[in-house]
Amino acid sequence: MDCGCGDSNCDIWKRIYSAGQDNIYRTIFDLFPGVNTIIDSSKDPTWISDRTNQLLKTGLKVQNIIIWKTPQEFLQSRIKRGKHKAWAREWINYHKMYFRLVEKWISIRYSELVSDPDSLKGLCNALDITYFSGKERYWEKTHHTLFGSTRAKIHLHDEKSERFDKYKTELESRIDMSKSVHTQQRHIYYEMPENNIDDRAFVRNKIVINEIQETLVARNYANKEIDYALIQEPSSRIRANFSLEAYYRAKRHALRLLLK
Ligand SMILES: [Zn+2]
User: Fold this and answer.
1) Range of the domain at 118
2) Cα 161 to averaged position of ligand 1 atoms, centre (Å)
3) pTM of the predicted model, to two decimals?
4) Per the structure, how many domains does the chain have?
5) For a tag site, which of 20, 52, 63, 182 has the least CB within 10 Å?
6) Running along the chain, 260 residues long, what does each successive block of 10 average in pLDDT?
7) Rounded to the nearest 5 degrees, what angle is found at the Cα of 215, between the Cα atoms of 211 and 217?
8) Which of 47, 89, 62 is nearest to 201 (CA)?
9) 57 alpha carbon to ligand 1 midpoint, in Å?
10) How far does residue 254's CA lie from ligand 1's centre (Å)?
């Protein structure tokens, strides 16, 4: 198993795995006594919901934040990877699943996080975790990452290292080479979507897309004190039903078996 820290002898993840899924965060805290905050960047709503429910039982504090892209931004990133056929269903179903399974959460737009230098500070404030200047330059420290996105892994390594070349090749094989070659890896970048994307899926799903976006915007971290007691549950139109959840869970399970 490849750990993001770059040390081939690192057995952190082996030790965490052997302690079991239900003890995952407790084990991490035990392994790193100086650590008081764990960021789990998993996207799977079933994982988030299962871990959240289990954490609430142990008394550890848990906060969920969704970093979201607009449909235009999401489509743009899918086009870049060359697989955008089902983008609308993916975008809609992901949020429907999230709204069904995750109860308490706040949001931030991906573009805001990467383009506004003050947003991370504000976000840390809203989450009540310590911000220090330079927190966004996370590649300057050693990190034990697993299954992160290729791009996130790249930032953690020296550009000259062998490992960097490996990931760079992996990344470039996935993107359209004619468009851009990413040489400035140590910058977080954000590209504005093109305005002329003409996709019928926008029109067909307009109502659902709008309602999802409104829900996401309403829970922005900068909105004063989100009172969960007063928040209305997302409507059934934008909340997964039982069969979508069952389908989603089965698909995730199959994928996990394949990766083993
Ligand atoms: Zn490691």
Assistant:
1) 39-136+200-259
2) 16
3) 0.76
4) 1
5) 20
6) 78 86 86 84 90 89 93 90 89 96 93 87 85 61 59 43 49 36 40 58 91 93 78 90 94 81
7) 115
8) 89
9) 29
10) 27
